[in-house]
Amino acid sequence: MASEMILEINGLKKNFGRFQALSQVNLQLHRGEVLGFIGPNGAGKSTTIRIILGLIRSSGGEAKVFNRDAWRDSVTIHQQLAYVPGDVYLWPNLTGGQTIDLLLHMSGQSHTAKTDQLIETFKLDTAKKNRTYSKGNRQKVALIAAFSTDATLYIFDEPTSGLDPLNELIFQQQVAALKRAGKSVLLSSHILSEVEKMCDTIAIIRDGRVIESGSLAAMQHLTRNTVTVKTATTMADLQTVTGIHQLEFTNQAQTAATFSVDSEALSSVMTRLAQKSILQLRTMPPTLEDLFLRYYQADNQQGAGE
């Protein structure tokens, strides 16, 4: 049986005057999933999230949260939703602790033992006034309040901006805990390693259009494996083999090389290497960064040719 749909966006459009910010955005998020929403600044991530939150109205298409209209039913939707933006602005004269309690109260929640545990884990000095906090500490206040909230959907828009690597790791652990609890998470990020570690499915947005979506495993066929190999006999003939790219020999005898290979050509390339007596071999599967760069490099090359 298919899992419950938490978020469903179809053909979403948004115009600001003559500027088309979103032209074709399709997203799906099921219960217990983490969806990574990636793209460069200006691609349309935050605009999409603002429509999901009911902060702005779409110009076309539909955005449904809990099978309700994101704009029309935003008040009801927000009762089951927690949100952390990429740049948190707080009341300057309140302390961090007072702010966490206020944010929880506004969400119909209360300060619990879990809140205290999160404050300790993130190492936040809650006695300090918000105006004295760094950007990272302001993010911590919002994240502690969000993770303390018992919601169905958590939306994070560049949430680790300003956090040090240790607190980024804590964030990742907390998201994993939400997933184990059957919660759903929409994570907008430009930190590809962060998305790759945490997300079940990924949607890549470019120029207001989702150009690829699915699991990373399903998308990896679209890019290339990296191979580092040493053989007993020369590999000079690999320069003419279809499916091999960026071939670099690392010794004069041309018996040591690094190259990338299309997934569909991997089997035939390995057969050819085996005939040369493999001494050492390492293959690296494609990463999300490889996939992401391939899309944007292809786009830049296409733009250069126009």
Report the uncertain regions.
Answer: 301-306
The first-level CATH class name of the largest domain? Alpha Beta
How can the largest sheet be summarized?
6 strands, mixed
CATH topology of the largest domain: Rossmann fold
Number of strands: 14
Range of strand content:
25-35%
Radius of gyration: 23 Å
Helices and strands, in order, run as: EEEHEEHEHHHEHEHEEHEEEHEH
Strand order of the largest sheet: 6-7-8-3-9-10
The whole-number mean of residue pLDDT values reads 89
Q: What is the general shape?
A: elongated
Task: Assign a percent range to the helix content.
Answer: 25-40%
Total count of domains: 2
Helical element count?
10
List the helices and strands and how they pair.
Elements (H helix, E strand, L loop, with lengths): L4 E12 L2 E12 L3 E5 L6 H8 L7 E6 L2 E2 L4 H5 L2 E4 L11 H11 L6 H9 L13 H14 L4 E5 L7 H16 L3 E6 L2 H7 L2 E6 L2 E6 L1 H4 L4 E8 L12 E6 L6 E7 L3 H9 L3 E7 L3 H18 L1
Parallel strand pairs: 3-8, 3-9, 6-7, 7-8
Antiparallel strand pairs: 1-2, 1-4, 4-5, 9-10, 11-13, 11-14, 12-13
Helix pairs in contact: 3-5, 4-5
Report a brief summary of the structure.
With 306 residues, this protein is α/β, with parallel strands linked by helices. It is built from 10 helices and 14 strands.
